[in-house]
């Protein structure tokens, strides 16, 4: 069976990201998964092997880390030409999409982004228009280059050899035009990554202040979830932009989405309406969020949320 | 500084959107169309740079004839002129083809700085800026929440999941921006009147030297083969808090095994 290249998403703090394991799981239906690590592999190779990576290609060094995206796409394109894979899967993240875009141009090949499923023949399912419609799409020129949205499937282990192969990194000056001079981590504690979390607790304008977001964080921590925010909450300075859920923020698809003081505008729905279960707390019984909530509490979040937090502590 | 801003017209994300029944492309003809929201931030950033450093701002749009409406609206914010690439053969172009056409148009414009939105609300593909940089062989500083121009040196704070990265490059370059970068101005009455007289050059594929067979549905590198509306979600249980709303909520979460 042909190889399927899975471009690994990992972070210094969390190790291999869940979307990587999902991609390895999808890759098995398309061929033999090979993981591609663009950066230092550290100690993640065991995990990649556990989830089915027969081979693990590693391209590391200053030429990869010191510049934005371009060298990674060049190394990946060379690898594609060398192994002629059945497909290339990447994460539907900013960087994953950017690498995919460059790869598509280099190979004059089609690409599909934001897939939530992929069939054995490379047909991808995408949720479009704020999650209101589903399409099935195919790459019609070249091999399937597909970016996969986190939380699309449940990763399952399938131990494989995980043979590591170092790649030689040979990039041109054109790949070194954009230098990365600093990487700054902004604190977010030990919470799971927003797009990968199985529980997301989000606050909106109803939370009323940055200080009050502690309530949202407390509930998220009790449930082991991530914290999200509506745009109104972000624009009002209650919570940082990287946690915004919606049209111009992150798309999340957790098992449970809890919306606190969020009205449920169409642009907010765009980022969360494919969640498995939706729960809302809002004092306005007419709030549109109730139209999609599996369970809704009409009430003041400043009363309901602290009581819920106490109750969870009691039950633990 | 010679700045080109990439502006796309898209169906309003606040209204019902669909694919055309005949060929599964985004239904644009009957949609209520607007400037892609993120591109308004790109226009604002270009205008601020012009105000601080001088130069000229050109709007570049590829889209159907009806996109002139969004072009005039963009011009009413303050840019000097526009280039509209329009050709019936472009209908149904994929991202790969769009980047080919926009790169060809940029080839005629001699820009020092190309500013785009980070993503468009119709496709949300987020790939065009890097595709253009790849084709033009110039730098790309994408996902900016802050842009600093110092002569020919550009510095961007690139927003990431973990925080941000500081990236630098020299012009010519493509920069893409998020909505955290600025607050777009509203067009003034004077701006709206002035926009009516600003030059809008239209370009066809032939004029750009791009073969019609490489773009549109004919040259698409991917195709939508099936389209279905998701069944709308319906509301479930709704309780009114009468002093035990939090407890009831947790009972539900426990029953659903989240606690
Ligand atoms: C192009 C475009 C893109 C956009 N992108 C996004 C996006 O990515 N994400 C996003 O979220 N929005 C986005 N928006 C904005 C969106 O239209 C809404 O304005 C926004 O989602 C509203 O946020 P909200 O629900 O927090 O605020 P509001 O609509 O003001 O709702 C606040 C809710 O809190 C309730 N409330 C108030 N106090 C309490 C209390 N004490 N207890 C309980 N409930 C209370 C109120 O009843 C109300 O329903 C976008 C808009 C546009 C035009
Ligand atoms: N047809 C187009 N005409 C002009 N600019 C475009 C077009 N398509 C995309 N862009 C630009 O590229 C950005 C990213 O778009 P996308 O890669 O489609 O998500 C947009 O915000 C625009 O600035």
From TrEMBL, chain A:
Gene Ontology terms for molecular function: electron transfer activity; flavin adenine dinucleotide binding
Domain Electron transfer flavoprotein alpha/beta-subunit N-terminal span(s) in chain numbering: 4-184
InterPro entries listed in its UniProt record: DHS-like_NAD/FAD-binding_dom, ETF_a/b_N, ETF_a/FixB, ETF_alpha_N, ETF_asu_C, ETF_asu_C_CS, Rossmann-like_a/b/a_fold
Cofactors, names only: FAD
UniProt-annotated binding residues for FAD: 205, 230-231, 244-248, 261-268, 282
Keywords: Electron transport, FAD, Flavoprotein, Transport
SMART domains xrefs: ETF (SM00893)
Record's cofactor remark: Binds 1 FAD per dimer.
Pfam families assigned to the protein according to its UniProt record, in alphabetical order: ETF, ETF_alpha
Gene Ontology biological process terms from the UniProt entry: fatty acid beta-oxidation using acyl-CoA dehydrogenase
Keyword Electron transport: yes
Self-association state and partner proteins as the record states: Heterodimer of an alpha and a beta subunit.
Homology family: Belongs to the ETF alpha-subunit/FixB family.
The protein's role, per its UniProt record: The electron transfer flavoprotein serves as a specific electron acceptor for other dehydrogenases. It transfers the electrons to the main respiratory chain via ETF-ubiquinone oxidoreductase (ETF dehydrogenase).
Protein name, per record: Electron transfer flavoprotein subunit alpha
Gene field: fixB
TrEMBL record, chain B:
Superkingdom of origin: Bacteria
SUPFAM superfamilies: Adenine nucleotide alpha hydrolases-like
Molecular-function GO terms, alphabetical: electron transfer activity
Spans traversing the lipid bilayer: none
CDD domains xref list: ETF_beta
GO cellular component, one term: cytosol
Domain Electron transfer flavoprotein alpha/beta-subunit N-terminal: 23-212
Cofactor(s) needed: AMP; FAD
Keywords per UniProt: Electron transport, Transport
InterPro entries hit by this protein: ET-Flavoprotein_bsu_CS (IPR000049), ETF_a/b_N (IPR014730), ETF_b (IPR012255), ETF_beta_N (IPR033948), Rossmann-like_a/b/a_fold (IPR014729)
Record bears the keyword Amino-acid biosynthesis: no
Residues annotated as signal peptide: none
PANTHER family, per the entry: ELECTRON TRANSFER FLAVOPROTEIN BETA-SUBUNIT (PTHR21294), ELECTRON TRANSFER FLAVOPROTEIN SUBUNIT BETA (PTHR21294:SF8)
Physiological role: The electron transfer flavoprotein serves as a specific electron acceptor for other dehydrogenases. It transfers the electrons to the main respiratory chain via ETF-ubiquinone oxidoreductase (ETF dehydrogenase).
Family designation: Belongs to the ETF beta-subunit/FixA family.
Self-association state and partner proteins as the record states: Heterodimer of an alpha and a beta subunit.
Protein name per the record: Electron transfer flavoprotein subunit beta
Species name: Paractinoplanes toevensis
């Amino acid at each position: 069976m042909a190889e399927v290249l899975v471009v690994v998403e990992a972070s210094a703090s969390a190790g291999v990201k869940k979307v990587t394991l999902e991609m390895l799981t999808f890759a098995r239906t398309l061929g033999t998964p090979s993981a591609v690590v663009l950066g230092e592999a550290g100690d993640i190779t065991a995990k990649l092997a556990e989830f089915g990576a027969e081979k693990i290609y590693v391209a590391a060094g200053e030429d990869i880390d010191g510049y934005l995206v371009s060298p990674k796409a060049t190394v990946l394109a060379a690898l594609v030409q060398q192994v002629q894979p059945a497909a290339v899967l990447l994460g539907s993240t900013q960087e994953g999409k950017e690498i995919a875009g460059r790869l598509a141009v280099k190979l004059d090949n089609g690409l599909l982004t934001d897939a939530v499923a992929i069939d054995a023949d490379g047909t991808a399912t995408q949720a479009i228009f704020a999650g209101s419609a589903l399409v099935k799409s195919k790459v019609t020129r070249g091999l399937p280059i597909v970016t996969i949205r986190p939380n699309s499937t449940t990763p399952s282990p399938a131990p494989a050899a995980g043979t590591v192969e170092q790649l030689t990194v040979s990039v041109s000056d054109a790949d070194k035009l954009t230098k990365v001079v600093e990487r700054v981590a902004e604190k977010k504690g030990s919470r799971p990554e927003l797009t990968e979390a199985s529980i997301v607790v989000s606050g909106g304008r109803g939370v009323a202040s940055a200080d009050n977001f502690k309530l949202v964080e407390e509930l998220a921590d009790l449930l082991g979830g991530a914290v999200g925010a509506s745009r109104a909450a972000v624009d009002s300075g209650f919570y940082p932009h990287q946690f915004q859920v919606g049209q111009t923020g992150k798309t999340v698809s957790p098992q449970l989405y809890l919306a606190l003081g969020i009205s449920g505008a169409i642009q907010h729905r765009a980022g969360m309406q494919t969640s498995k279960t939706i729960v809302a707390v809002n004092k306005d019984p007419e709030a549109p969020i109730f139209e999609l909530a599996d369970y809704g509490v009409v009430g003041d979040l400043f009363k309901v949320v602290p009581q819920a937090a106490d109750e969870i502590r009691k039950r633990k | 500084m010679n700045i080109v801003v990439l502006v796309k017209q898209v169906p309003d994300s606040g209204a019902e959107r669909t694919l055309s029944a005949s060929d599964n492309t985004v239904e644009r003809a009957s949609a209520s169309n607007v400037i892609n929201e993120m591109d308004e931030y790109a226009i604002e950033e270009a205008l601020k740079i012009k105000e601080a450093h001088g130069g000229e701002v050109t709007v570049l749009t590829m889209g159907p004839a009806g996109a002139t409406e969004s072009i005039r609206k963009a011009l009413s914010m303050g840019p000097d002129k526009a280039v509209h690439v329009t050709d019936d053969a472009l209908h149904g172009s994929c991202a790969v083809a769009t980047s080919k056409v926009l790169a060809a148009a940029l080839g005629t414009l001699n820009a020092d700085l190309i500013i785009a939105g980070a993503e468009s609300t119709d496709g949300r593909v987020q790939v065009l800026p890097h595709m253009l940089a790849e084709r033009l062989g110039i730098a790309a500083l994408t996902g900016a929440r802050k842009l600093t121009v110092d002569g020919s040196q550009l510095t961007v704070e690139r927003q990431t999941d973990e925080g941000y990265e500081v990236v630098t490059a020299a012009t010519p370059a493509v920069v893409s921006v998020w909505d955290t970068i600025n607050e777009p101005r509203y067009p003034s009455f004077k701006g709206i009147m002035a926009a009516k007289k600003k030059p809008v050059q239209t370009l066809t594929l032939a004029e750009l030297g791009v073969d019609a067979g490489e773009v549109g549905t004919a040259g698409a590198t991917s195709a939508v083969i099936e389209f279905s509306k998701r069944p709308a979600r319906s509301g479930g249980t709704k309780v009114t808090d009468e002093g035990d709303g939090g407890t009831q909520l947790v009972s539900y979460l426990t029953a659903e095994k989240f606690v």
